[in-house]
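queue> holo job accepted (3-phosphoglyceric acid)
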Amino acid sequence: MKILVATEKPFAKAAVDGIRNIVEKAGHSLSLLEKYTDVNDFYKAVADADALIVRSDKVTKEVIDAAKQLKIVVRAGAGYDNLDLTACSAKNIVAMNTPGQNSNAVAELAIGMMIYMSRNTFKPGTGSELKGKKLGIHAYGNVGKLAADIAKGFGMEVFAYDPFVSADKIKAEGVTPLNNVDELYATCHFVSLHIPANEQTKKSIGYQLLSKMPKGGCLINTARKEVINEAELVKAMEERVDLKYCSDIAPDNASEMSEKFQNRYFATPKKMGAETAEANINAGLASANQIVKFLATGDKTFQVNK
Ligand code: 3PG
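queue> job finished
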């Protein structure tokens, strides 16, 4: 069977080598489409693929329509908002993610971004420390938990809001659970976002929450740009000259943000959180293993379009 890796932002070589090894050992062939700039190349490459591995690449209805014999698509990573699940299900294509595999890389970057912002984006001048500051984890999943663990090592006081995780579990891990999201923003100097992008969360972070943050409040977004209400972010930062925003993905209004908030805003142009060799290897190999197992036994662990 043909397994296609289609990555506009390629995996590290070690990850590709590992994927190839798993795929070929199982008697399949690997095809690579890296750094493509024309989506038509994706349509062509996927036409005869039986399985597909992607990162943030958009697997649209058009991609699914072009795929004549696709049985499974695996998003090597956590967030699967880039997969058209309805289109997959309509053609009985199993869609999966690889939860947890790249979480540590994202958690480390979130903390790194907190340091970068507290040290005035490394410009001359007196900054501040993370020790003793309050960190709010907005969604206590794999990344949120790891970010909390690291933050505790820095001596931060960690709070979390997550309606899907029990307060007892959060408490047992040395984190203070909060009952509502407003309280999280009102309490914490830093809020680190780890919510998925879906119909409920898109544009859900805006003026009302941001303007509640304590003096010097800093929002770290290593989740998705779509969860931010960008116009309201601008409004909140215009009104409050102490608020800061840092993200591992540029917002749609990136040029306005850099113009208006030079020292209070930073974003990496491409999604950077999971850009480590370790995360590439963990998520890439997990994807290949999940595909090989599915093709051999029908195992659907990690299916997201049930
Ligand atoms: C994820 O959802 O796993 C991260 O956002 C990583 O995305 P990437 O594979 O595009 O780096």
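queue> The pocket of 3-phosphoglyceric acid is lined by residues 9, 55-56, 77-79, 102, 271, 273-275 (CB under 6 Å).
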